Amino acid sequence: MKMLKENCPFCTLFLFCLMMIVPLRTTFAILKVNTMFGDNMVLQRDDKVTIWGTDKYGQVVTVTFNGQEKSSTADNQGKWMIILDPMKAGGPFEMTVKGSDTTVKFKNVMVGDVWLCSGQSNMAWSFKDPQSGSILVNNAKEAFDVADKLPDIRLFYIDKLSGYSQEPQYEAKGSWEVCSSKAIEKFSAVAFFFGWELKMSTLKDVPLGLIDSSVGATGAEMWISKETLQANFDMKELRNGPFGHPISGCYDGMINPLIPYAIKGVIWYQGESNAYKPDQYRKLFPLLIDEWRNKWNRKDLPFLFVQLANFSQPFDDPPVTFTELRESQLYVWKTVPNTGMVVAIDIGDSKDVHPKNKKDVGYRLALAAKGIVYGENIVYSGPVYDRMKIENNQIRLYFTHIGGGLKDKNGGTLKSFKIAGSDGVFKDAEGIIDGDTVVVQSKEVQNPLYVRYAYEADPVVDLYNVDGLPASQFRTDSKL
Questions:
Q1: Is there a domain that residue 213 lies in?
Q2: Residue 415: which pLDDT band, with cuts at 50, 70 and 90?
Q3: 306 shares a domain with 263
Q4: Within this chain, do residues 182 and 330 fall inside the same structural domain, yes or no?
Q5: Cis omega (within 30 of 0) for bond into 318
Q6: CATH of the domain at 59
Q7: 348 and 315, same structural domain?
Q8: Model confidence over 319-367: pLDDT tens digits?
Q9: Based on the domain organization, do 63 and 210 belong to the same domain?
Q10: 396: domain range?
Q11: Helix axes 278-295, 322-335, angle to 10 degrees
């Protein structure tokens, strides 16, 4: 074959075309299965399960698992994808993936429910400090003692540095581990307590997988793709995280690599980093939920989240308003289908934005999962304001989620109410439980028009249902 001549226009065009064609053929030489799959993993029951990876172009890849054998051919990018039929809970099983002169086997594989656990620092908060080894949460000894007895819980921990990604990633930096006292040390405490409660009740005979994909000090905009943000926002309205988390960085590095790994639902604890613009969150948070549902092709993907806990919030640069951010979270719960909200304004820490009580948060998230996702006939929420009626010099309030009835935690009269008349000046008021309603009045307001309950960053919380769950803060003069 003659050498191509230098400076020949035809030769240059030929080389250019060759360069354009060659990349269409894969550079992958051997079989590779995506890192979401490995020993000890949990695959989602009762749903189609997608398995994917790479191999050389044209190679037939075969997956054998739990009585199924499915094949796919690697495309011109070297990518292959296989979809298994829905399976019942069970295990342990072995999975075999055969490709180009290579066979990969995964052992101790379970079929059960998989929950994605995401958000910022209060979700990321682990049992132990990785540097000092000191205990960071309450009930840690209790958790360590039981963790070794829960081998049917499997944990996938994603490296936090993945959240700093500058572009979409396709493999998660993590691996599946069998639950143990050692494995949970670095794992989300909220996620573990959530899983523990489900395993002890609803999922006694069902394996459970928990994926910890969370990073501290991250706003919701870090968890949404650039394409979606650009289509819905002026990007100047958004900002990078305080420690250099780029916008969309967490989505690119910690969510994109997971798609389309089949999951049961999402638990989410985040919002502190968006409290400086609470109204913006009313658009950001639903946008996040909608995008994740679209990417997983699950319009009804359950999304359970924690309303911000009580905190005295000394921050003022930029000014933050936890009170209004909670209101935005309540708005999302009331307007976005198949979501659930956990109230935490009674279990936070006035002096610490990272309260140590993660067990009750996880427990309440599990209650929401039982009631909303698993269809159990239980009380999973505290009272939620529904409507009001003015009766002379007092206002009668009606609620949903009253459970077995309303309760004043401290006895006597409820002290966390304020009412206002036409001047809009709110005065301290007293509330009295009257059946399934609360009657509020104040000697200082003769013609009341508006009511607020626990509408402070760090409020006194006294209205509960008899099932022990607190009412969410609310105000009747809001945009909600």
A1: yes
A2: very high
A3: yes
A4: yes
A5: yes
A6: 2.60.40.10
A7: yes
A8: 678 999 999 999 999 999 999 999 999 999 999 999 999 999 999 999 9
A9: no
A10: 384-475
A11: 40
Percent of the chain with pLDDT over 70: 92
Query: Which of 373, 408, 442 corresponds to the end of one domain?
Result: 373
Answer with the one of 50, 73, 108 that is the final residue of a domain: 108
The pLDDT, as a whole number, for residue 14 is: 42
- The token pair that represents 226 in the structure block: 């650039």
Confidence grade of residue 21 (pLDDT, cut at 50, 70, 90) = very low
Average pLDDT over the chain reads: 93
Are the beta carbons of 87 and 109 closer than 8 angstroms?
no
**Structure tokens belonging to residue 285:** 């948070």
Which among 163, 234, 150, 235 has a CA at the least distance from the CA of 197? 150
The rounded distance, in Å, linking the Cα atoms of 310 and 50 is 41
pLDDT at 29: 75
For residue 127, pLDDT over 90 is answered with yes
CATH code: domain of residue 343? 3.40.50.1110
Does one domain contain both 208 and 338?
Answer: yes
Domain co-membership, 126 together with 104: no
Contacts for 75 with CB less than 8 Å, ≥ 6 apart: 57
Report if residue 6 sits inside a domain: no
**Which strands sit side by side in the sheet containing 32-33, from one edge to the other?**
32-33, 49-54, 79-84
What is the reported pLDDT for 411?
A: 86
pLDDT digits (tens, 9 = 90+) for 205-242: 999 999 999 999 999 999 999 999 999 999 888 977 77
Position 7 in a domain: no
Same-domain pairing of 284 and 226: yes
- Identify whether 14 is part of a domain: no
Q: Based on the structure, what is the number of domains in the chain?
A: 3
Q: Are residues 90 and 148 in the same domain?
A: no
Lookup result for tokens 């028009």: 449
pLDDT mean over 116-122: 98
List, for residues 310-330, the tens digit of each pLDDT value: 999 766 666 678 999 999 999
Alpha-carbon span 408 to 414, nearest angstrom = 6
Segment among 233-237, 266-270, 274-278, 389-393 with least mean pLDDT = 233-237
